[in-house]
Amino acid sequence: MQFFKDNKIYDLMSKKKFFGVFSLVLVTLSIVLLFTKGLNFGIDFKGGTIVQVKYEAKAPIQNIRGILDNTEYKGSEVTRFGSESEIIIKIKQSTTAIGEDLGDKISKILTPTGEYEIRRVDMVGPKVGNELKEKGLTALILSLLVILAYVSYRFEYRFAVASILALVHDVLITVGVLIVFQVDINLDILAAILTIIGYSLNDTIIVFDRVRESVENTKESDLNKLLNNSISKTLSRTTLTSLTTFFVVLTLFLFGGEIIHGFALTMLVGVIVGTYSSIFVASPILDRFNFDISNYRLNKDKKEQARKAKERERQMYENGRI
Amino acid sequence: MNYRIFILGLSIIFAMFFSFPTLFNTDSGKKINLGLDLQGGMYMLLGVNVEEAVENKVKSIAQSIKYNTNKNDILIEDLQLLPTSVEFSLLSSVQKMELEKILLEQKEGEVKNNGLKYSITLTNKEVQQTKDFAVVQTVERVRNRLDQFGLAEPTVVKQGKTDIVVQLPGIKTLQEEQRSRDLISKPGNLQMMEVDEEKMRSQYSWTSLKLEGTGSIKLPNIEGGEIILKEIPILTGDNIKDSRVMFDESNQPMISFDLDSFGAKVFGDFTGNNVGKRLAIVLDGKVYSAPVIKQRIGGGSGQISGNFTIEEAGNVSIALKSGALPASITMLEKRSVGPSLGADSIKASMIALISGFVCVIIFMYIYYRRVGLVSNLVLIVNVLLIIAIMSLFGATLTLPGMAGIVLTVGMAVDANVIINERIREGLIKGKKVKEAIEEGYDNAIRAILDANITTLLVAIILYAYGTGPIKGFAITISIGILVSMLTAILGTHGIYQLLGKKIDRQKHWFGV
Hints:
The complex is a heterodimer. Chain A is an alpha+beta fold. Chain A has 11 helices and 4 strands. Helices cover 66% and strands 10% of the residues of chain A. In chain A, strand 2 and strand 3 form a beta hairpin. The longest helix of chain A is centred in the last third of the chain and has 33 residues, at 223-255. Chain B has 15 helices and 19 strands. Chain B is α+β, with helices and mostly antiparallel strands. Chain B folds into 2 domains: 3-39 and 338-510, Multidrug efflux transporter AcrB transmembrane fold; 43-49 and 128-334, Gyrase A, domain 2 (2-Layer Sandwich). Helices cover 54% and strands 19% of the residues of chain B. The longest helix of chain B has 33 residues, at 433-465. In chain B, helix 12 (370-392) runs antiparallel to helix 13 (399-428). The interface between A and B is large, with 79 and 81 residues. Strand 4 (116-124) of chain A pairs antiparallel with strand 18 (329-337) of chain B, so a sheet runs across the interface.
């Protein structure tokens, strides 16, 4: 079986304007969403308490809301969680006392609402929340910097900048989707975003590796043709890997359970956007930054000559001539 | 026999051998630990209020100054407690020599003097040491308490400078959880103090404020009212050797404790010299009893009674045995998962793992046919290897970690796909099978390495900055990447070389 015909070169670069505009619109929309609606931070970053309760019968959500509104936990969010019998209560407060915690208090308050079991209590104090936010942001920025350094070292700085921009594109659009679906941003979402960075970069690098190879091994001097060629040659691989990854993420999304839902959704979006960007976004950026084939070859030759000169010198040294 | 197939063979044996205990849940052998989110349990991040430990140290310096000057009839005034120092003035310069002799014995803090004004300041190093020691001691004592509580495998470790991570996988019910939290939070500060009989005679004219600086303090009595006590305790919980719950005549639980030899001697001497006076037993700032001393009490044991429930008495006894907390602790983060939720999560992620796995395997076969089978074989080895390595290191599998394995299955085929596509390319160009295979591997390796190293770098950063479950995710992803490179680059190559001539004319193996 084959998805794409052998040796067929798709002229994707001629449509770069279209994809460029399409991506720009999506990114702009995401940024607008980010500044208007903003991220919906969960307790990991904002602090607060989550209580997950499973009732023996259908959970009496209205009743629970009513009861909570008469306590100091007025304004807590009560939402269904997966099944009919399971709910989650999001409370803004957190306690620092060890002896009596919010879970115990909520449990007491809920007594008249029926038979239930408290399955999970997560409490994050404001200090930890801020710390986690700081750490998360550092991790994100650090990953981008490390990628920038590594790709610059292995390829050329233009490749690095292009892949980073493609990643920023992916992250922004994913975040935009998260805002639309009102997903709580917790640590697992951050992990998913970082994984997407790794994944999408993986895809982009496979394409860039072809570009690098073509630059080094062919005489093609037209960048557009060269890029088209490279993307087309890797198209089967990109699609195939994306599909297998998409399948497993889809199974996670469908069967992985409610707790992992946000994570799976983020991954699902990320895989799609990441695949799209490594085919349609990263290479046009390379073109946009005036990647110069002959210059690359010249530098490569220079490096090669320098290496050879060094080797000769070493040989001469080893032979005892210096 | 080529070295590649040899390594693959070794990997398969290794994978089967070490993943066996985890997969079949054998009694012996190293297994993967389940994280708290999968097996249920409680995670807590506690902050030690280290400033309190420093305050206490300053207080104890002040107390010893007061005690020693009192004993030697040296008159001082304006004794003041500052955050890291004690200040006071000597009344008359005549006693300067005597005072300085006492101060020479002061081991902690830097003594400075300006005329009649004296100050004892803790050096920065001492402050830091006090803080560090408070955290270390808290870790030790909390661990001690939890060990005695009898829960399975509690872990208590220091994190950062002043925080402590407590993980209790054994907790099954809310009651157990509550009790363990009570146990941890109990200061467990026992003091035996002398009742200030003189001031007690006019106790209503002594307010707490008035008592300040007189060497006495007023504490609440659990039977009602307040009692004035000499501030410097005769003995503290530090001298307790053992403690247990006992029952009095009316079958009411009480806590009995034994003092060590030093404590017993001090206790004996004090009771011998103070017959007719009262001795108060003070726990966490409350007087539990203040019996009149009838005779010298040797043997060094005592009881605390006061309407305890059995559980409370048990907690106090454990707290006494393990020692008082040097400073109070506060809850910074708590995550508790009930065992039923953990079981649900395991079930859900197993379904995802298996269905994802089957999907990929079917897909690879349809797309690549025979070669797909080779990739699939290697993929199975891959998953087993991840499980084996995690078991071997006793790594912890969390829910995100589980997601990481599922994800790895999707991404692990990537290296195979890259190689297979390269081989196909060669075949289409009209190369011979053997040639195409060798060239395919040569061309693919650079791409595979670059792509995987970057992902690995991100995973390492995730590990360094993540906490708890996220670290678990980073670990499985990293192991997955490394293993997939090994199995794809070496493993499949080895298989093709083993097949050698058999596939020489079989281009259709590659679906071409």
